[in-house]
Predict the 3D structure of the following.
Amino acid sequence: MLYLPKPHSCHLQWHITEKCNFRCTHCYLNEDYIKQELNTEECFKVVDNFVDFCIKTDIKSHRNITLTGGEPILKSDWWKILEYISSYKKKGLIDRFYIMTNGSTVTDEIIKRYIELGVNYMQISVEGMEVINDEIRGKGNFKKAINGAKIIIQNKIPLSFSLTLTRKNLEDIEPLARLAASLGVGGLGVGRIVPIGTGEKMKELMLTPKETKEWYLEAERINQRLRNDGINFKVDYHCSDGMYQSLRPGANNPQTNHGCSTPFDVFTLLPNGDVVPCRRLPIVVGNIKEKSFLEIHYSSNKIWNLKNFANKADECKNCESLKDCKGGGMCIAYGYFGTPYAPDPDCWKAFGDNLSGKKYPENPDSEKITYFKRYINNLRFDLEPITKEQLNRKIRKIKIDKLDKVKDNEVD
């Protein structure tokens, strides 16, 4: 029997609605969810459930919530939900909460309300300079995003831009970075296209492994040119790009090597209550209306198979970079090969210069994990499942407080 580990932090990325006023060509939006969205009381219970998970697993920091969509403000009970999250934040039970937006709905009045509620950070998606952005996100939407960014920055909420990398916008990265820096944006996060949803039709816009490796080297050169020009701004890699850690400065520093953290400390909640490891990895591991985050985390064999490096393809298991990169982007492997256990299709170590047509088994052959059901009373700090003997040597008792006490701010 294996005793399962305790998370060190928890981040809830909550896609609160699929309603959106944009129709981006690479989006993974599913409009079927619009008719199945959680109601106000169910949304309140989600927040309760998240806080309960953090308390029962003794997580004392990095308890963060990101609200996104669709365009999240289009959720009918948006302000009630924000006020509810804010009430927990004021009690110190949620550390930070963030909002992702397309920028078009931003007004000065809205941002001032966000400040009152304690929003810590915002992100706007921009796909390049005006011509390319509007080709992908719709005519006139670049100007809307830039106008929204100016309002956010004027009100002193930290802001970053996010971009999905394709063949179309490679040449726009540096001009966009310079524009963003001039506005006061804090950084530009670049993530590769994931071939799911409408993005599945855009596989031809994916870079080859050789081209992707060159792009990440070019990103470092862009950052150096910005520094040379006295510009304090960084083009950074996406969470799915752990395999490129070896190309960046400080490659051997464990503080900078992170890889994909999807199955380790992130819940992604869809508008209908489905829980998935990542919005870009649509493998349903439970539904919040049926099970708590705690139950899902400790009883989903799908989650624990994703955590288990033994399930990785041979190209990854035999690679010296696996510990740091965690196999690259599981979401991209899933979209391209049909399984998250395949190597990242853009990995030059696995595939050389070109995208591969290799087939991989859909599911791993590993044995089903036998779970220790008393996870509420005895939880572990290890990253990997451990044996009973190991657990007994290092058991830690965790105080369990009822959620009604949490709401009354009676937690020590």
In short: The radius of gyration is 21 Å. The chain has a mean pLDDT of 83. The chain has 16 helices and ten strands. The longest strand covers residues 159-165.
